[in-house]
Amino acid sequence: MFLLSRLPERHSQILVRQPQARLRASQARTRFNSARIATLAPLNPEEKQFGSLPIDAGKGPPSKRNSEGNSGYETMPKQSQVEPVADEIIPMNYTNSSLTTSRSGADVSKLLYDAGPPLPPSDSPNFQKILDQKLSICNFICNFYNPDVDVEAKKVKSSILEDIVNCLSATGMITNVDEQDLAKLVKMCQNNIVRRLPILDARTIFSNDIPPIEEPAWPHLNYVYQILRRIFQNFGYLNVFNNDFVISLLPILQSPDSNERSALGGFITTYMKGKPACNTVLLPHLKRNLEEHCVNHSPPFIVGPILNLYLQIFQTGTMSNILLADAFQQTLRVLSDYHLSHFERQLKNLVEFFTDESMSFAAMFVKTLILKWPKSCAEKEASFIRMMTETIPKMSSRELSPLIHRIFSIYAECSCSHATKVAEAALQIWANLQMEPIIQEHGRKIVPLMYGPVSLALKEHWSKPVRESAATALRMMSKISPRAVQDLNTANSSNSGNESRFAPTAHDDLKKWANIARTAARRDHEVNLGKKLADITMLYNGQQKQFMQTHSGGSQRAMSMRQQNFYGARF
């Protein structure tokens, strides 16, 4: 999502996106204004000459447009005269042009009357009539995606929902309400919760770190979830609380608003605890929703709540081993998700449960991590390292021994990564008490693999915390295998004139860029793979030539071997 600067007379560091040609100016302004937050004011309120730029950047402020409808801005300060200021990370609303259409005022006027008096006691003769009137308004779904529509209806409905919450919270009040009226309240809640979710622009969630997104209707939904939770806590036996009711709520777990996902996930968890028999009914629906996400690459919001519900179901201990294995296999598929960091905590909790159940699950998980190891996303690579470090101690020695070389080769490569998160996560294994027995048992294989990269990280890494972690790792190596460290140190000293790993990194880095180009070509057929690989090769050769001219004492044989390995990759 391209945010706009809120600072007067200052340009944003983020691009101003031109609206699509088919989007009318009025619709663009409506979508922009609906995403505004009232508390966002310029940092310098005394300067109000320009204010924030409108979303339809092709048109200037009304005061600056000429009578002929000139579409350009008036003269503004040049970029060189002002200091670019980046926008802060703020919650943002999301809109959909199909949901911003205005409705006829005649339909709204029929329901738009005073909220009336508060709900009387349940034994009052007017209670039934007043409750039905209030429910008729609460069942009216206001259009929060257009701030100019249903303005009065939103205020009246908020007042009524708050009145109902206060009524149900009063001591002894809820126990006197008739079950038929409670069923009407539950149906009202379902009517407000089950809705069509807007489709997010792909640019909003292109990053692996998704910004917080607010549901515009949350002021009403917050009351709705409170009503639903209070009724279920006291009247969970009502016929309206059945499996079909809960199944109808599952798609709303895809809501981008974390508040709504938390409220809905908490209610479903409470329902499952109160009615354990529903677990076998809900599990296939949860699996289908997760499968649809993996196949369609939909937004990642639904994954975390489903993994939490998986954990709740499996912790009951009523599932067979076949169902457990099948669910675990499906869970492993989400490791390929680009937005893994969005649900990493829920995934780690579920994996911890499975790996505690059986060593075979631990081995399966580590092997899957190796096969799906990310190459271009440092955030995801750091997550993989942390999960691998936590799972390896749970593997049996028989299954771990064949994987030692592959696992610690990954650790060695990541130890000298330029990404601080990756390097620190890889070096933390030397301070991990659970990893210490494994390192001591396989020290003869591990120390030679990791000594070189860790030494280079200690000498040349740009991050001070990484260098400190590397020093700790070398001290641990000296304690575990002092003879091997002494031999490696001697060999390393004799080759001190050789090229540094951090100086000529063009080969490794550009080889990764070649992998990225192949991936892009597989996903987008318009990408010219041959041209991209040729550009990468030319850039690599140019950097290698420059490096060899600068370091004339370098090894020509090492360079030729690197070129051979690079060209040996199948384009």
Observed structural traits:
single chain; 2 strands; 571 residues; ARM-like; 24 helices; protein phosphatase regulator activity; two-stranded parallel ribbon; elongated; Leucine-rich Repeat Variant; Phosphoprotein phosphatase; mainly alpha
Task: Explain how this protein is built.
The chain has 571 residues and is mainly α. Among the domains are: 1-90, no CATH class; 358-496, Leucine-rich Repeat Variant (Alpha Horseshoe), CATH 1.25.10.10; 506-568. The chain is 56% helix and 1% strand. The protein is built from 24 helices and two strands. The chain has helices at residues 25-34, 105-111, 127-138, 151-169, 179-193, 218-235, 243-249, 258-274, 279-296, 303-314, 321-333, 344-357, 359-371, 378-391, 397-400, 404-415, 420-427, 436-441, 443-460, 464-480, 482-494, 506-523, 529-550, 556-568, and strands at residues 92-93, 213-214. α5 (179-193) packs antiparallel against α6, α10 (303-314) packs parallel to α12 and α12 (344-357) packs across α13 (359-371). The two termini are 34 Å apart.
